[in-house]
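Handoff note, outgoing to incoming analyst
You'll be picking up this chain. Sequence as last confirmed:
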Amino acid sequence: MMRMDLAASNPANHKPVASLNTLASWLPFLLLPVGAVAARLVLAQGWFFPQCLLRKFTGIPCPSCGCTRSLAAWSYLDFEQAFRFNPLFFLVCAGMLLWFGARAMELLSRQKFLPNLRLALHEWPLWRIGAALVAMNWLYLCLALPK
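Most recent structure output, in case you need it:
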């Protein structure tokens, strides 16, 4: 019984949790380039990729239609096309890159920027802003998304 208490109080036992948190915070930035390359390969090679069922049966694109093509355009650094295929997805990717830059600056300068940003955003009605952005993006996709 005493061994468990000593093991629980040992600071060395807390390192894996911290490293998991660090990995989890960097994982989206690892997935972005991997996803871009995968989207590029899927579209270039003509590999099977499931179609959007909403668009297939109704002709109406779903709010995430164009994300694969946008991600493939990111891999070519064709930002105009990436924006055209799905503007909201483009902004999410750009936001992730900005957050990655801020996180890298935090690590290099050893100063915290992101907690202040979280506190500033806490006052905003983010779910309402997000819902409005999704609705506007979906309207754009219905009117302008190429087939």
